[in-house]
Amino acid sequence: MPLLEIDRISLRFGGVTALSEVSFHVNKGEIFALIGPNGAGKTSMLNCISGLYKPASGSIRFCGDEIVSLPPAQRAARGIARSFQNIELFKHMTVLDNLMLGRHVRMRSGIISCGLYWGRAQKEEIAHREVVEEIIRFLEIQAYRNKPVGTLAYGLQKRVEMGRALALEPELLLLDEPMAGMNSEEKEDMARFILDINDERGTTIILIEHDMGVVMDLSQHIAVLDFGRCIGFGTPQQIQENPLVIQAYLGQEA
User: Fold this and answer.
1) Percent helix, strand, coil in the chain (nearest 5)?
2) pLDDT at residue 163, as a whole number
3) Dihedral (CA of 175, 177, 183, 184) sign
4) Range(s) of the domain holding residue 92
5) Is the pLDDT assigned to residue 108 strictly greater than 80?
6) Are 141 and 102 in the same domain?
7) 37-51, pLDDT tens digit by residue?
């Protein structure tokens, strides 16, 4: 059974159709790429999966369960986390505090015990802090742990945002253009982290990325969107040989 099944999802904003009858599936443990021209509906699809948008029709099944009616918090609690195309961090807060926010759906202590910071709440925060410290080591950002996020370079902020999503300990990680605006060295680092997250942690990843070299190197399967429709689905080799994809996105040789 696939980890995620998208079945005939349609999304409309007034008279504008952002997604039209889109279907694909993502297997457990793979890196899956979602590509297409600007405005093709890629981020809209991630918003439907994470719960920010509710589709007009269609089905989204995660681990075999229908989740299309669940709010974002319940999807996060089930193990779906995401990063954003535009960095959505609390820039006045430290790296450590931003990552700790990613643990909020895993916290079980009540308001009173958390306010008093005693007993169960204290033990729970220590345990969450250990998880976050491991992520800081994993992403090699120890030197920045106590620095306000707003003072960091852009590439490091993108790494912190991915770390906050990892703090949820997701089964499915949605990455919306994690390498946008990066130089070649920063892209290599991010690609390495994505591969390590998938390999060492067993996390399934859906990746939106415009760098076709990165997409073809990292992903096992790809879905291609164009004007809200899925015009291609398959392995990197199948996508490269798909005439509709070549015409709409990859470009034909002169």
Assistant:
1) 45, 25, 35
2) 93
3) positive
4) 84-170
5) no
6) yes
7) 888 999 999 999 999
